[in-house]
Amino acid sequence: MFTMNRIESGRASRAQGSAISVQHGANAEAFTFARAKAAALRVMTAEGLRGIVFLEGGLVPWVASGRDSGRLHGDVDLSARLGDMPAVREWLVGEGLYERSLDSIDLACNVARTDFGAHAVVDGVPVSFCPFLFNGGVLIQRNAATERTEGFGALFEARIPGIAEGDFVEMREIRGMGAVGFSTLEVCRAAKAESGREKDVHDVAEIDRVGCDAARLARVEAAFENMSVACLAFDE
Length: 236
Known about the structure:
Strand content: 25-35%
Distance between the termini: 23 Å
Structural class: alpha+beta
Helix content: 25-40%
Number of helices: 9
Largest sheet: 9 strands, mixed
Radius of gyration: 16 Å
């Protein structure tokens, strides 16, 4: 998930921390760019999911530019409109990739059975599907940790007021594959620019090489200033 950073310690403290990206922290394996990209594109170009799912995270600038990142990637992050999550699950079932233990709806802490997304393993690579929606001018994006992915179950929600969907996600042409869904480069840059992590500095440099829309970046950065992240429930 583009808006949050992974929690590293203690079950309760991990779940209650104010900023988390469920990036399969319990899985120490990392994957070459080529392998992670292949898994991402399998989903992004799938019949029924093209334009339904949007690539997020560290793969974005490199898949968009067509260049190899030259670094390892821990997983693939994808988002989808909340209303499109049934199509995501249908595809996972059809491909034999759906696992109930990786679905947020079946988490013990999810008493209301609200959709906070799902995880899957695609060609050996962990993939997250995070739902988003807009409510009263506020972008709401949800994510979940599971025992399989993080070693604990929890539900998370990020809220960003004042960001338009057109500044959040877009369609981009990939050579030989047509148009597929991406988080915008501006969102990716805004999410990574302040982390200081070596991999994020590397990714931001590629975004800057490709080039951003200055006006869109300014809007996104202003919206991110008012972002909030909350843990709404976690397994005791």
